[in-house]
Amino acid sequence: MMDRLEVTEISPDQFPLWDSLVDTSPHGTIFHKSGWLEACARSLGKEVKILGCFTDGGLVGGCSLFFEKSFNFVGSANSTCAVTPYGGLVISPCPSKGVHKQESFFGQIVMAIANSISSRNLYSIIIRNSPEFHDIRPLTAHGWSSSVLNTYYMDNGGNIESQIDSDARYNCRKAERNGITVGLSSDISRFYDMYCETFTRKGLKPQAPKSLISDLSVFLKNKNCGEITVAKTPEGEIAAAEIIIWDTRMAYSWLAASDSRFLDTRATTLLALANLKRMQDRGFRHVNIMMANVPELSQFANHLNPVLIPYFQVQKKNGGNILPLKNLRMFMVLPCIVLLLTLNILETFECMVEIFASIPDFWSSSC
């Protein structure tokens, strides 16, 4: 039996403890890091909280969540936000090798965290976990609904160029014939302009404001866990760009953009191949290509012959527990009272106008 579990909010001075758990847990990603979460909250005007599950032995699990309120009283929580595809639950590795003990260890921590979140009287709770978080049974067994999303993993273990399909290899050769070269950049403004143009061209809305991309770029630079790569024409113009990031286990093709003037150069494919090779040189066996949930983007990614990987989102709604009924009734009644008072004031004002308007007629008739 596990030691008594206590779930409390992790304070800023405990963030290094959380970040260490993120690094050692199979569920942790760069998107769980405290610096990433703080940058998102600051730029998007959200409140971020990290709930930690502690035993006498220390931090054994946690969950990162963004909190919002509507009408100043209806609360909701979500583990993700703009350009942050994963978040939520992170559980430490179980010290036991037995499946029974592993599942018991995992299930107790998950439910301790889930019960703590549910007790906050939130209208909606959405937790989108990382692809390595496989077991959502403790949650679905206790009333949480679930849905499946997908991403792509690219295996970087062998000859990458031989893995991609013939169309992708042809596009790479065409890009080389067009004189396209690949290098690094630090021009986040140019990248964001291309990013917006790419989404608009595909009939999509850009996923994040420039302030968020800029803040996260500062975090990536400070932690040395990301870079902007660009494909340039012989004239030095940027034809395509990509921000690729990484944590202790995996690299991520995070954001990509292209200039519509140079689509025919096939610079985007050459850049994607070059980045896969760069991450292979850094020792990453897998690159997460996060385009599988958007058909307009997956049509490009699937030419690289990646593996489709599912991941899970769980959700719970507490519609009956948001407010005490008397408070809800008061909230509904107050606008009606204000409206009635406003109408009475208007009627009184109209009567006074009529009275004052009749005063000259009264005096003239008296004279």
Which helices and strands occur, and which strands form pairs?
Blueprint: E1 6-9, H1 15-24, H2 34-44, E2 47-55, E3 58-70, E4 74-78, E5 88-91, H3 99-118, E6 124-128, H4 137-140, E7 145-155, H5 160-163, H6 166-177, E8 181-185, H7 188-201, H8 210-223, E9 226-232, E10 238-246, E11 251-258, H9 267-281, E12 286-289, H10 295-301, E13 307-317, H11 325-366
Parallel strand pairs: 4-6, 11-12
Antiparallel strand pairs: 1-2, 2-3, 3-4, 3-5, 6-13, 7-12, 7-13, 8-9, 9-10, 10-11
Helix pairs in contact: 2-8, 6-9
In percent terms, what proportion of residues is strand?
Answer: 25-35%
CATH architecture of the largest domain: 3-Layer(aba) Sandwich
Q: What's the total helix number?
A: 11
Flag low-confidence runs: 320-331, 359-367
Largest sheet: 13 strands, mixed
Global morphology: globular
Q: What is the string of SSEs from the N terminus onward?
A: EHHEEEEHEHEHHEHHEEEHEHEH
The strand count comes to 13
Quaternary form: single chain
Structural class: alpha+beta
Task: Give structural notes.
There is one protein chain. α2 (34-44) packs antiparallel against α8. The chain has helices at 15-24, 34-44, 99-118, 137-140, 160-163, 166-177, 188-201, 210-223, 267-281, 295-301, 325-366, and strands spanning 6-9, 47-55, 58-70, 74-78, 88-91, 124-128, 145-155, 181-185, 226-232, 238-246, 251-258, 286-289, 307-317. It folds into two domains: 6-149 and 312-321, Gcn5-related N-acetyltransferase (GNAT) (Aminopeptidase), CATH 3.40.630; 157-284, Gcn5-related N-acetyltransferase (GNAT) (Aminopeptidase, 3-Layer(aba) Sandwich), CATH 3.40.630.30. It has eleven helices and 13 strands. By secondary structure, the chain is an alpha+beta fold. Strands 1, 2, 3, 4, 5, 6, 7, 8, 9, 10, 11, 12 and 13 form a 13-stranded mixed beta sheet that branches.
